[in-house]
Design goal:
Number of helices: 8
Radius of gyration: 20 Å
Number of domains: 1
Helix content: over 70%
Order of helices and strands: HHHHHHHH
Oligomer: single chain
Shape: elongated
Largest sheet: none
Number of strands: 0
Strand content: under 5%
Distance between the termini: 30 Å
């Protein structure tokens, strides 16, 4: 029985190249932000002209959100696998919980924008954008993404950077950059339109390091 358990564990062991999930997440989230920012004005009280002019571009961005979410979950798994027995319950709970809350906020904001687009597709021109429901949905999506999702992203970077320092799973300079980027999101999330884009920057850095370290270790073992 013990041998079967050990065999199962070996088969389920995280692949060395699994850290590429963080790189995929970073690329997808950058793409999503770029498509949305070039299509939807930063002002949550704008008149909604993008429902006519940029609907196809926004649809592409919204369809990429689930794939980015899956890649982010895989990245979290890679990070926890990297920690192994060094994982502290307190910091692990904080960074895991904040990551799930960030994804929930991201999905909620995307769902609101998608719902607005769906209703707009069956409404007369100008009928939806002149309604109170459109302004409420637009403002809610803005607040969810730029306030609550941004704050959860900051908490995730703070907690995971602290874990990096205490466990040494990555160089300290990556953790220090993580603190700086988290502070940027925490303070400027509501005022700087692109502040949330620092999360994929940090994920890209730590994923790149873990991937290179895993591949180097694999070559050394060979």
């Amino acid at each position: 029985m013990a041998e079967n358990g050990a065999l199962t564990h070996a088969q389920l062991k995280t692949p060395k190249a699994a850290a590429i999930a963080g790189i995929v997440f970073s690329v997808l989230l950058f793409t999503i932000f770029w498509l949305l920012r070039r299509s939807i004005p930063a002002d949550p009280l704008e008149p909604g002209a993008w429902l006519v002019t940029d609907r196809a571009t926004i649809a592409v961005a919204l369809n990429l959100v689930p794939f980015a979410g899956v890649a982010f979950l895989w990245f979290i798994g890679v990070l926890r696998d990297r920690l192994g027995q060094l994982e502290d319950r307190f910091f692990a709970t904080v960074f895991f919980g904040s990551a799930l809350l960030f994804l929930a906020m991201l999905f909620a904001a995307a769902a609101l924008i998608g719902s607005v687009m769906l209703v707009a597709s069956i409404s007369e021109p100008g009928e939806l954008t002149s309604s109170a429901g459109f302004r409420l949905a637009r403002a809610t999506a803005y607040i969810i993404a730029n306030v609550y999702a941004a704050k959860m992203a900051a908490v995730f970077m703070f907690s995971s950077s602290t874990v990096v320092i205490y466990t040494g799973i990555a160089p300290r300079w990556i953790a220090y950059i993580g603190f700086l980027l988290a502070l940027t999101v925490l303070i400027g999330g509501q005022y700087i339109g692109w502040s949330l884009a620092v999360l994929p920057v940090w994920v890209l850095m730590i994923s790149g390091y873990i991937l290179m370290d895993n591949l180097t270790s694999a070559r050394g073992a060979t």
